[in-house]
Amino acid sequence: MRVVVQEAPFDAGAELNAFAKGDTDIGAVVSFTGVTRDVSGGLARMQIEHYPGMTERALTQICEEACARWALADVLVIHRFGTMEPGDNIMMVATASRHRADAFAAADFLMDYLKSRAPFWKKEVTADGADWVAAKDSDEDALDRWS
Amino acid sequence: MINVLYFAWVRERIGLPKEQVETAATTVMDLVEELRAREERYALAFSDLSALRVALDQDLSDFDASLDGVREVAFFPPMTGG
């Protein structure tokens, strides 16, 4: 299990190639990369604030929960903070398992939980000013799928 | 003495990221009432608790939770990671 919280950009392809490398008992690797999206046009940049300490703790707990629920050989979560431009990678998760069903389900679970349980806050900056991104009820509702 | 941290718009409304608070509050709600009574900016930040989350010593918690033994309280809006 590897949890990384960093300001610097990361190379999703290189991370994925290095993930679970050499483990010959794995039949499936699933990954998801979150990218800074210009939702309504005119996004200059996105600023992501986090809670140092709690962030690493929350992400580790979420990964441990995924490992308890599914047969995973490895889990990777990378999440950035600081300033991103449209098109920049924000975060990625990867899961490795013997079979794809566990790898897919665990990646889905990790995304649902880290969206509303890891202490990150996004702020969108446009020419008109800056606004905090509001959490969606649907993100909270998504957690019910796993209870 | 408790370390109180604020994030995102809660930090902006109150105007600082963290402070040490001398308090006899026994629950999070008691602490919120003390902070609300301080100044308008606190009252504004804590006006709608349904729009806020609280963490005690870096674990998500509830506003009716006890502060017994707690060293760090953080207030912030619902999280938007991913």
From TrEMBL, chain A:
Summary of subunit composition and partner proteins: Heterotetramer of 2 MoaD subunits and 2 MoaE subunits. Also stable as homodimer. The enzyme changes between these two forms during catalysis.
The catalysed reaction is: 2 [molybdopterin-synthase sulfur-carrier protein]-C-terminal-Gly-aminoethanethioate + cyclic pyranopterin phosphate + H2O = molybdopterin + 2 [molybdopterin-synthase sulfur-carrier protein]-C-terminal Gly-Gly + 2 H(+)
Specify the pathway: Cofactor biosynthesis; molybdopterin biosynthesis
Ranges that cross the membrane: none
Q: Which domain of life is it from?
A: Bacteria
Q: What is this protein called?
A: Molybdopterin synthase catalytic subunit
Enzyme class at the top of the EC tree: transferase
What protein family is recorded? Belongs to the MoaE family.
Enumerate the Gene Ontology biological process terms: Mo-molybdopterin cofactor biosynthetic process
From TrEMBL, chain B:
Instruction: Kindly give the SUPFAM superfamilies that the UniProt entry links to this protein.
Output: MoaD/ThiS
Gene3D superfamilies per the UniProt record, alphabetical: 3.10.20.30
Q: Report which residue ranges the record marks as coiled coil.
A: none
List the InterPro entries.
Beta-grasp_dom_sf, Mopterin_synth/thiamin_S_b, ThiS/MoaD-like
Pfam families linked to this entry: ThiS
Task: Indicate the secretion signal residues.
Answer: none
Per the record, the domain of life is Bacteria
| Alphabetized NCBIfam families for the sequence | moaD (TIGR01682)
Q: Protein name, please?
A: Molybdopterin synthase subunit MoaD
**What species is given as this protein's source?**
Litoreibacter albidus
